[in-house]
Prior knowledge:
Blueprint: H1 7-29, H2 33-38, E1 42-52, E2 58-66, E3 69-72, E4 79-84, E5 89-96, E6 99-107, E7 111-120, E8 123-133
Antiparallel strand pairs: 1-2, 1-8, 2-3, 3-4, 4-5, 5-6, 6-7, 7-8
Amino acid sequence: xxxxxxxxxxxxxxxxxxxxxxxxxxxxxxxxxxxxxxxxxxxxxxxxxxxxxxxxxxxxxxxxxxxxxxxxxxxxxxxxxxxxxxxxxxxxxxxxxxxxxxxxxxxxxxxxxxxxxxxxxxxxxxxxxxxxxx
Length: 134
């Protein structure tokens, strides 16, 4: 003869099943986004390389990534802001006087790369960027 399960016992069993399923999903998903974004936190050296246009051949910027936000570490009056998504996708904009540029790319744990496009007193320019964690 099979023992019967009352409503309270059934509710306890159901909660255990749901909790176990939740734990299994969390194990598959991995770290939460904030934890994976923090992997890229730190001070970065970014080399900007001009490949098209009359802009200077190259620039180097020191930036900080903290909690998915990119900021400039210098004091030259440069307005630099951007984001790094948990998967490393990076978007940045920079402005100095009448010159400005937007860039996109990807940061891994120690390096990064992408492209940029800008306009200013020299007309339109474009190129690539490379980043390295200091």
